[in-house]
Amino acid sequence: MEGTYLEGKTFDQADLLAKGEYENCTFNNINFSDINLSEFKFIDCHFNVCNLSLTKINKTSFQDVKFRECKMLGLRFDDCSEFRLSFSFESCQLSHSSFFKLKIKNTTFRNSLLEEIDFEKTDLTGAIFDNCNLIRAVFDQTTLEKADFRTSYNYSIDPEINRIKKAKFSLQGVVGLLERYDIEIET
Question: Which tens digits make up the pLDDT trace of 82-134?
Fold first, then answer.
């Protein structure tokens, strides 16, 4: 890849990024909205309180990247480079984003809004959904084996078309597994 290589730098609102590779960098309070970050490479980076809504991330590499308190509406993670793709999300708003067909085992989503997320055909084996709102998230032919949904809510997962072996759910959350049957459950 052509471009800049930067390691161990901290960027704030005033900084502009050049196309390249960023390793062990921190990005604080930057508005990336509608910016083209295609083919950038981020390794062991932290994004804090950034707005990445509608950012173009075609062939972008995210390797061990942590997003905290970021607004990330409408992102197409399925356009990213799949090589060593790994990230975690804490207190993020990821609504209307797509993870279609990705293998993102052991990904952590914590305290995040995941409204209308596309997880169709995604491998989420061992993923942790800790206190996440999954309203209208799409789970279709999704691998959710050993995933943990115990503290999350508003999900609807059809056990007949998704792999959920050894996944963890709370008693309250079981309602989200029975929704397709259009039955009434009283507590």
Answer: 999 999 999 999 999 999 999 999 999 999 999 999 999 999 999 999 999 99
Domains, the chain, with CATH or none: 1-92 (2.160.20.80), 99-187 (2.160.20.80)
pLDDT for res 2 = 62
SS (H, E, C) the chain: CCCEEEECCEECCCCCCCCEEEECCEEECCECCCCECCCCEEECCEEECCECCCCECCCCEEEEEEEECCECCCCEHHHCCCCCCEEEEECCECCCCECCCCECCCCEEECCECCCCECCCCECCCCEEECCECCCCECCCCECCCCECCCCECCCCCCCCCECCCCECCCHHHHHHHHHHCCCCCC
Residue 91 confidence (pLDDT) = 98
